[in-house]
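call fold(seq) -> tokens
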Amino acid sequence: MKIEVYCEIESICLEQLKTWFSELTPLHCSTGQEYLAAIFIVSSQHVEETINTILGAGDDRRGRYKAGPYISGAFAIPVKLEGNLACYVVLTRDKVEMFQFQELQYDAVSTLLEELLHVEQYALTWQKFKRLIPEPAFLSQEQFLNLASFIIDEYWVARQKAPIIAQNFSVVAPDGASTPLYLWYGGNLIELLNEAQTRIHIFRASKSLKNSDLEEIGSTIVRYIFETLARDAAFRTANPKHTQPENLILLENDSPFYNGHVAEYWKSIHKQMVDFYEDQITKESAVREIASSLQNFVNYILY
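ret:
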């Protein structure tokens, strides 16, 4: 494994990272390790620069990366490089430093595992289709296909990751009782949807929408709406029902925007993700259907 470090960091953190990488990769990234070119460790302020450098080096020179509302501190980036797949993992220094603290190690392992699972999914898709997303039927649909692929990968990874963490980490109560550590989506769904609604109102107030606005619109509907719902749904499905928080119940009761505008499209997208995860449909088919739902949602919400 090639690790490139672009910031100061303790050697013990790197050793722990290598140890966990060696343990996790054979079990959960056996296909992906063939395509994992390098792991980059950078300071937080250099994340966007690093990711955009990777994207710019690929054969397809994909669009620039923009951070969402929550910065995870870890990213898996697939690029087509000289006709083949190459995957890179970017970790921030603060995430890698967690490996040296026993009480934070589960968070560090969870972060690394998630990115390795993303690499695994990219590799499986590449081996089957020799591309990461379906070829667009029309050029104008290409961005929606990218967004759909991103959403479905987030769902797949979260469903894979939750039981692995629950099997390997536990929470110890004051009385000494131990229970599995269940992961849940950490964002506030209602707040994120409210922010999406505000941003959409701004777009609608514009006298004219240019093609260049589509990237920002796409980022809004994915990062603030459908990615958050996908990750939340994945953790719910993967974990026991009796342990689940009430996010979705609160959402349905307290978010008119969700009930009146999002729910119909989300149910269609959710079904495609579940069907793909359960091997009832191919990823290519699911991505096309989700892309269509996203495009329909944008047309509905903006016009």
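The chain has two domains: 3-129, 139-302.
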